[in-house]
Amino acid sequence: MSDSLRTLTVTVLEAKDVIACDKGKSSDPFCKLDLVDGKSAKAISGEGFKTKIKKKTLSPVWNESFEFGKKGANLDTKNQPTLVINMFDSDTFSSEEMGRVTVLLGSIDQSGGTVERWFKLENTDKASSNITGEIKLSLKYSGELLTALPIDMTKPIMDVVDSDPEGKLNELHILLIRATGIKVMDKNMLSKGGSSDPMMTFHLGGDEKLKSSVKKKSLAPVWEETFKFPVSSTSAVLTCVMDDYDMGSGNDFMGQFSIPLETLQDRKEVRKWYELEEVDGNKGEDIGSVLLAVKWVHNVELISVVDKAVDYKDPVWDDVKDEDLEKDPNELNIFILKAHNLKIMDKNLLSKGGSTDPMFTMVLGEEKLKTKVIKKNLNPEYFEKFSFGMRSNSGKLKVICDDYDMGSGNDFVGMVEIDLSKLSDRKELRSWYQLGDDDGSIGMDIGHVLVAVRWVFNPSRLSPVDQPIDWGNPKMEVNDELDEKPNEINIMLIRAYGLPVMDKNMFSKGGSSDPIVSFKIGSEVVKSTCKKKNLNPEWGESFQLPVKSSEAFLEVLVDDYDMASGNDLIGTFKIPLAEMTDRAEHRAWHPLGNDPDEVEGAEDRGWEVTADIGHVLLAVKWVHNPERLSPVDIPVDYSSPMFPDLGFVDDVEKAPNELVLFLVKAWGLKVMDKNMFSKGGSSDPLVEFTLGDTKVKSTVKKKNLNPEWNETFRFPVKNDKATVKCLVQDYDMASGNDDMGVFEIPLAGLENRSELRVWHHLAFDEDGDGQIDAGADIGSCLIGVKWVHNPELVSPVDQPIDWEDPSMEVVHVENDKEFPPNQLGVTLIRAYGVKVMDKNMFSKGGSSDPVVTFTLKEMGKISEKKSTVIKKDLNPVWKEHFAWQIEDDKRFSETLVVSMDDYDMASGNDFIGSFEVPLNELNDCVERRNWFTLIGEEEHAEVGSVLLAYKYVHNPEYAPFVEEESEPEPEIPVELTPFEKRMQKCIDDGDGTSLNLSKLQLDSVPEAVNALISLTAMNFRGNLLSVIRDDLFTFTAGITSLNLSMNAFSVTPSSIPQLSHLMRLVLSDNQLSSLPIDLFAMPKLAELYVERNYLRDLPKGVSVALNMTKLMLAGNQLTYIPEEVAEMPSLKMFDVRDNPINEGEMNVGVRKIYDSTVLHVSKSSRRGLVSRALTVRKLVEENRERQLRLFAEQEKAAKKQEKAEMLAASKKKR
User: Fold this and answer.
1) What is the pTM assigned to this prediction?
2) Quick check: 1069 and 1054 in contact, CB under 8 A?
3) Which interval of the chain is the signal sequence (predicted)?
4) Res. 1157: pLDDT tops 80
């Protein structure tokens, strides 16, 4: 393997037919060659050359060669730069541009072969005339691009043994092979270019790091060095960092990449190129690649006490009693036994190694308990017991390990969180826990701790929360009229217990709190008194809140009162009023939580309980209080006041076109302007109604929480899906209006043309999330609405259509040949009620400058036709005619799209609205003339109407030519192209069902193939195809056999899976590196050939191929075969010869199909099968011998252990 740089030799051979720039119809051409960076689009310094000048010629010959890649350009990366060649005409004072050639180097042969071809000169911005001519170039790389070559899995070989394939993964092996395309870090001082001194560092997040050797002055270093880490956590991540070594100033970062160990759990070697990234993970720039092999195995020598089954009898934990299994547990018991292999925190000064002074802290909620400190011990034994009061097991117990240091403070070693939800069975849970970082992530092994936990009932921890509730002390005396709907929530705050300390003592342990309780529904809040310095306060206070909605929540917040800095939240909970609909008293202890945004329940009611932070005893009852009755609760009186006179008679036989809205009054509005020196206040309400783009406002009622308006508003509207949005605001001229509540009035339900008068309850979007929140009563509005027909609003849209003005220009011509219609005619007549787009600056109203655009596909191309612009007119008249030629097969599927814009020459047109005209019913050649509603950008927004006349006709000019009387002249034979010959043969021989286009050098599929809609088989073998048109298989959907072998596909065409009838697919001899799972999900695909490509693995889920009988994958780079292949129910033949696979590791079912396939391939293959069988037999025998040796060693070790235990027992008896 070479360390040298990869270079590119470009030979400028000749040019032809270049433009003449001099008066003598000649030129003096020369070429300037540059390499341009693909990201910055700038020329790479030092990588530029010029050819010699060729005098007075339009066909210059140079034959000059230039070598790129030695002075700054990196040609060892996948993202190759671009070669730009500019041709100039030499002149004494200046040079005139003659054209440019751009060569994307990533698209040419990367294997080192010579590419010689003509490149067309293209126009440039500074060229004086149209550019002509071509340049012939020869391009050749000095070597292959390493990252594009197949990876050799055997050189060098990764000699790693998995001691026990069933054992726990505990050792990561790394084989660092080589790198390529890395950055120049040490630039030459006196010349361009430079080099680097790369080295690699590997770590798993801990302090332990493994480093490679330094490869001096190399941009393509080769290491072939091995490393290994002891690691067993699947959440660990291997970080690989490349630095440029510098002994003086320190190493410089060159790039990095990461490998999650969870991807290596299959215990197989992963060998591949990893792309270097910047620290932030940016992959935008190619800064090099590293070839690395990794494998995660089980090493029996690394087995420790942590890997063995936990012994619950060493020691027995029998001093914890669960006193009463019938009662809910209330105490968490913790047994810290020992720790193993803790991380060294205090390193020795003059020698390697060191020790730690470990101590453990248990944290549950706000409570902490600590073990003793054991000095200088990496494997300490504690056997200490602790307990916490705990009623809910939904949280987690934190166990934190610190290195004790009296002087500088403790140093964090690691921590673990123990999920307490597994303790519901009340049995002891004893386990080794691996310590991780403080964010919960686990990387390097920094130690384990053996912890036992158990949740039990301890009567000594009983509190008032656990005692039966006294329903008579204090007694809740509230009257309720059960026949009436509830409208008031009554709350009795009785007491609280076990509140946490919020105000800690300054000079001693302990402390207290000053609790105060707030009750909130919507925006209505009431508060209790403050109980100073009390963790178990008693109140006995009652509160009432108005509420009618069962969807509301009573939110309870307990705060620690602080007049200076503001209250601190202690805890909170929510009570849904849906639980109060039985109208009974609900008295219960409620646990405080610290997340008020969750859903309801103690665990399922609205907060997260991680530890006991206190309980609150409440009595709650939802009742009907007649004193809270308001006009809103009384049946609506339609006669006081009467609905205003419409001024016309509503003709119920005609469709409604006007909504009349009668704003009567409001009641119980919220106080928005509070009094400064006394309680209470008032509001200055107004109501804003919005329908589409129309907004109207009521008058302002000053200082009134129960205002009366009796005002009428009218909206022209025909759409029953429309909705009137109503917003009540408190008027404020200085600071702007404040929202008081919203509601909506839908037109649906008003079709009976009668008045609907309803109290609408105000709601509020408190969170600003667009969702109206149900809460406390913040007011109601009484509104009457009526949807009527107003004759004054009748518009041209409602009048009978004039079928004569104008008449259509297109004329249908009958024909005895029965030719179908071939032309669409459209007449744009007029529009009405167009939306105002150009509003007046100093007055209301405005206008628009409408222009209409018609869009339709004409003869395979999108055709747009536009009307004239009608200036400043909301009811424009055009009477303009348009026509399109229609293909016969499109008559039933086309749609005419009509859009209207407001013309603006300066800033561009503004969209007004659009509609679509389906053309599938026009085959009768009868004129249609209709009004169409313009729909704006907002849903259901009507922004005007357009009157169109339209029909299909037969136009003789577009009809096929038929000569009837004259004798046919002898046809002159026309020489067909090879493609045309194949197409003709397909039609003549197979009725258009089988098409063979092999070896025609096609780089795309001609559109003429679309016409063969009866095709069932296509053969494109041996062409230059790299992509397939997306619409090809739309026309040829009946394909059952498709051959795309020997082409240039690097990705499987995405349109193939849509072929629901495909049974045979050949993709052999392409450049595919992977296969999409969609191929295997095709319902009828039975045979799939992908031989001699670059496949490295098969996609997950191949067992979905229910009907596949043949899967031929010989000559790829597959390293293993997933067991899912054996689950393919119909598979009969499976060929993976010439792949780097250890056939001995194949699944038994897969191997049986494979061997059967090989027996049918050839006699030579049979001989290979015998050889392969002998090899496998040898491998099996070697594996059996290795297992026998392992078993013998284990038995010997067990006997040795047994003998030692017997010896120890005999000594103890003495």
Assistant:
1) 0.44
2) no
3) none
4) no
Q: In terms of Cα–Cα distance, which of 988, 1045, 1053 is closest to 1018? A: 1045
SS (H, E, C) 216-242: CCCCCCEEEEEEEEECCCCCCEEEEEE
Contact criterion met (CB below 8 Å) for 683 and 675: no
Question: Please, which pLDDT band fits residue 603 given cuts at 50, 70 and 90?
Answer: very low
φ and ψ at residue 24, rounded to 5 degrees: -80, 20
Average pLDDT over residues 739-754: 86
What are the phi and psi torsion angles at 1165 (to 5°)?
A: -65, -35
**Rg, C-alpha atoms of the chain:** 43
Distance in angstroms (rounded) separating the CA atoms of residues 1143 and 131? 60
CB atoms within 10 A of CB 779: 23
- Which residue, 1126, 1066, 1122, 1072, is CA-closest to 1094? 1072
- Say whether pLDDT at 768 is over 70: no
Question: What are the DSSP E strand ranges found in 287-395?
Answer: 289-297, 331-340, 346-347, 354-355, 358-364, 367-370, 381-389
Q: What is the pLDDT of residues 628-677, one digit of tens each?
A: 777 877 888 888 888 888 888 888 888 888 899 999 999 888 888 888 88
Kindly report which listed range (198-212, 264-278, 962-976) carries the lowest average pLDDT score. 962-976
Half-sphere exposure of 871 (CA within 13 A, CB side): 1
Side-chain-side CA neighbours of 220 within 13 Å: the count stands at 18
Please state the separation of Cα 614 from the chain's center in Å: 41
Main-chain phi, psi angles of 600, to 5 degrees: -70, 160
Provide the Cα torsion 176, 177, 179, 185; round to 10°: 50
The two beta strands, 681-682 and 673-674, are antiparallel
3-state class (DSSP) for residue 261 = helix
Per residue in 694-714, is it b (16+ CB within 10 Å) or e — as a string?
Answer: eeebbebbeeebebebeeebe
Query: What is the C-alpha to C-alpha distance for residues 66 and 48, in angstroms, rounded to an integer?
Result: 9
CA distance 740 to 854: 47
Selection from 770, 772, 768, 742 nearest residue 670 by Cα: 742
Look up residue 1100 and give its DSSP letter: T
The residue type at 428: E
Whole-number Å distance between alpha carbons of 724 and 745: 5
Q: CA–CA separation, 243 vs 245, rounded Å?
A: 6
- Taking residue 93's Cβ as centre, other Cβ atoms within 10 Å add up to 4
CA separation for the pair 301, 230 (Å, rounded): 11
Compute the C-alpha angle 102/104/105, nearest 5°.
125
- Say which residues have a Cβ less than 8 Å from residue 260's Cβ, sequence separation at least 6: 236, 237, 238
